[in-house]
User: What shape does this take?
Amino acid sequence: MKNTTQRSNGYYGKFGGAYIPELLFNNVNKLQKNYERIIRTKEFQTQFKTLLKDYVGRPTPLYFSEALSSKYKAKIFLKREDLNHTGAHKINNALGQALLAKMMGKQKIVAETGAGQHGVAVATACTLLGLSCVVFMGETDIARQAPNVARMKMLGTTVIPSLSGTKTLKDATNDAIRYWINHADDTHYIIGSVVGPHPYPDIVAKFQSVISKEIKIQLKKQTGDAEPDYVIACVGGGSNAAGAFYHFLGSKKTKLIGAEAAGMGIHSHETAATLMVGSVGIIHGSKTYLMQNKDGQITEPYSISAGLDYPGIGPLHAYLHETKQATYYAVTDREALDAAKELIHLDGIIPALESAHAFALLPKMKFKPTDVVVINLSGRGDKDMETYLKFIL
Amino acid sequence: MNTLQQTILNNKNNNLSVFFTAGFPTMESTKEILGILNTTNVDFIEIGIPFSDPLADGPVIQHSSTIALNNGMTLELLFAQLKEVKDKITKPYLLMGYLNSLLACGIETFYRKCYEGGVHHIIIPDLPVNEYLEEHKFIADKFEVSPVFLITPSTSEARIKEIDKISKAFIYVVSGNTTTGNDSSIQTEAIKKIQDMKLRNPLIIGFGIKNKADYSEACKLGNGAIIGSAFINMISGSSDLQKDIPEFIGQIKS
Assistant: This one.
């Protein structure tokens, strides 16, 4: 990644770092010292690439949507991460980190999950690679994402309800970190987004960067130019966006656009648009923007989409936002639902509610007819059927 | 040499400290509990700044934080309470909390208010040593506040020596690789090795210390112990703090 890491110790500008209690120092330090070397080994690369190709189904297609192109007067391509095994981009990181854990000699995995997509991806990777797996999930999320809980259990994963705080993703993350403190010797923590202490944001961005790597190759083939005018992705913690932006960082041509979840609106107090309403502080071991009150207490986010319902944002995005290398907009629940409805009817694709936020930016953008636009369709909407049936039929 | 350093040295190897969360169980409890502890055999007191996301803490301290926050407790109110009682409390007290609370307050304001509230030592588990040296130390020094750092049985020798060099009152030795209030026993062998390093600073052991037996063991391995979750559990179950706090302390250090 060019021009983004200014300090060698895991900072993107002033964001990032590792603000962790001493109890995690050894584990995080070992990871910091070893991850780059292990990821570069031929053994790792061969296994990872084979799994992505034959098990996950990569490369995922880059699909030219005639209907969206004609409606929004631009050349609109969809990067079909929804066609990955387990239904979203999350598997790229889960497999990469599970392999990394194995090569570091760990036999056990702990993870957090919000909507359950990361949890299912980790449970799947652990089953495949013979690792035992514990996933923390907020009690509230367990109730609203029952099918994913069932999938994890079927895969042999122990799902532990997070009963602390507000019982959602941030609390599941706290509990997964606490579990890691108490099981530091044999356990690796697979964080699900480009958040957490260094080196996690970098590890997750690297494993997700396959998305933009493929976009470049596919776009070159389909249009003659590897660089689009726009890449658009939704952002909660920001892992699919980090992956879709990665190889376009520093490009003079490509504009990087992120869609945050505004929930009921950024002035409604029912929102998860961290960059719009947050301020700089520390969350889950990383210095970044987060939603907090004036006493520094982390506040509860809200979005219709459980995967964007996070009160922080990855330090890479905080940095891209502050240096204006990427532009972030807020998309309300209603706008996301309308965008999902449009994609379902025009292209016959039921997107994840998270991904629908990226599509909701289409009516807000001013494209030239020659503009090439890539939208990262990060996941499929099977898990959101209940919400769709309730709101858009 | 300030009061806390003097106190710990005077007590040699039988220092006893307790931790409680400010604003728990009621907003006014901070002052009441401090006042009662001041009359007991406790040597110094740790006051927790309640935080929404306390990563290093087990369920008991988490729960006390949630209740304190629901009571409306804030860092600003805590500083005001300390200013009120500081002349009445003769035992040294420290603040323990998370970095985000400090940053939200503002680095300069935080250390100034510590000074005004009679706080000369702070424990911020997620403040990295380097960041303290680069961005906090010159301000903290100005207001005569110094940090206490944590080490664990798996902290490397080199890192322990570095921490010993910049510590002023004591080093907080975590009893094992655990969050607070866990049932796991003290990792005796590993802590003996730290003891053998003959550091400049006294070693005070914490996390999972719950009774007289744990305290006595900690006094053999270091210079005393801190009791947190067990003390908070006692407060939770008490209907008469005036009676129960001295009784709890008396059972551990008479």
Q: What stands out?
A: The longest helix of chain B spans residues 129-142. Chain B has a mean pLDDT of 96. Chain B touches chain A through 42 residues (CB under 8 Å). The two ends of chain B are 27 Å apart (CA to CA).
